[in-house]
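queue> holo job accepted (oxa(dethia)-CoA)
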Amino acid sequence: MVAYARVAGTGSYLPGNPVSNDDLAARGIETNDEWIVTRTGIRCRHLAAPGVTSSELGLIAAGRALEMAGVAAADLDLIIVATSTPDFIFPSTACLIQGRLGNKNAAAFDVQAVCSGFVYALGIAEKFIASGSHKKALVIGAEVFSRILDWQDRGTCVLFGDGAGAVVLEAAAKPGILATAMHADGSQSGILNVPGQVCGGQVTGDPFLRMDGQAVFKFAVRVLADVAEEVCAAAGIETAAVDWLIPHQANIRIIDATGKKLGVGRERVIVTVDRHGNTSAASVPLALDEAVRDGRIRRGHKVLLEGVGGGFTWGAALLEF
Ligand code: UT7
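queue> job finished
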């Protein structure tokens, strides 16, 4: 039996108070609000307190999504967490969240596709449900990127924030997720990475995020337009006909360039990068939850989610909410 996967609920969580660009400058980073706003659109971000982990952020977002969906944690049969900042090497962040939720039987695992992670995880969950093998999935994007930033590198540390977002997917007779796509090009692994390794009881190599910003920028604009066209073509609709576009929230200039290429005006693009910064795998579900809860996204709307990030990876999911 082939079923549709429908979004039954969304949730999100941001830790602590917003940290402004001026706050970062006051902490001794050689930067200023004007540079950050002009180049990226970012005005503030949330940073988790020391010791607060991705599983803790993800657990709160998951609780909110389950509550909106009216689904009991015990009834989940699949839990997928997209994260590049897991609590541990193992067990997976998904297993930690499963344990805290009190769920015993679901399949639980992490997906590591950096900023495309949530879109990858959503596509995987959709395929489990469409196959008929699973009925109720919890899909989470949760990150504490502040832990892997070099706070001496002003070219990267001002760009990222911490947070989590989640959706509950349920098997349904009607759409649902209409089309998904996932891609990668490992030959581009050098333009965005954290090249450290755990070996012999310590980290060898560089433990911090490194990025060739301009190479990432160009790559992102190209693949975000291509993959949007791919999923819309698969579902038989024009890109300009989507009600809402939710691209990965890394830089307002990338978001605007993508919207322009696709014929989707700013009034139909969900933007949180100004207040959240780049929260990697959490950025898309955070933006989705915000727009669902404030009433912009309503049942029946066509919503296009897009991720792009380290790997290099990229992907999209077109859904009828
Ligand atoms: O999830 C995917 C993750 N990443 C992205 O999507 C990022 C994509 N790339 C970008 O968003 C942009 O490339 C950045 C915002 C990262 C950088 O913007 P840019 O226009 O490419 O700037 P740049 O790196 O070429 O730097 C220009 C200048 C340099 O000074 P000089 O050499 O021209 O004197 C930098 O040192 O800006 C300087 N600079 C800063 N100045 C103030 C770099 N970072 C800062 C800073 N504050 N935070």
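queue> DSSP finds ten helices and 15 strands in the chain.
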